[in-house]
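Chain A, query sequence.
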Amino acid sequence: MTTEPPNTQTDLELIRAYLDGDSQAFDLLYERYKRPLYGYLQNLLRGEQANADDIFQRTWLKAIDNLHRYENREKFSAWLMRIAYNLTVDLFRSGKRRAESEFDEKFEAILPAAESFSPDANIRNRELADAIQKAVQTLAPEIRTVFLMRCEDVSFKEIAAIQKCSINTCLARMQYALKKLRTQLSGWKS
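Chain A, predicted structure.
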């Protein structure tokens, strides 16, 4: 490992160091990406904590097994999310999970800042979060996934690679999601 402080090393440097036998390099990668990955899975599999935990662990195991294949053409976080997405799709296909189970998104990012909320504003924000959650649940799984990944700041290029479709398909899915959410939320009154 180089003499740089660990938090300044790039993902690729940490991966190479791990592959060269430095187990601490992987620990740094894990610490860097455990929260975003776990948050993504919790939103993707809301209400299914055991499945989210299982896929989180399986994602890291699969990442370790395939780290030598990482080519640095995409962000490491997107590579991890693609693994998690594929494992989730496998879970869907295996029948271990209800097909109608819904995806959600982080609603905190949509709500206004928490600067001196009045009780009325707090109630309105909670009602808005519920309305958004219900609207997101009506989206088809592929469309919800694009929406959720964008909420996690994953680029359309990376989402296209994860979903194995074109960037235009991802853009169309996001556009459809936003249009449908606007339509469904147009009647919501603050």
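The two ends are 55 Å apart (CA to CA). The chain has eight helices and no strands.
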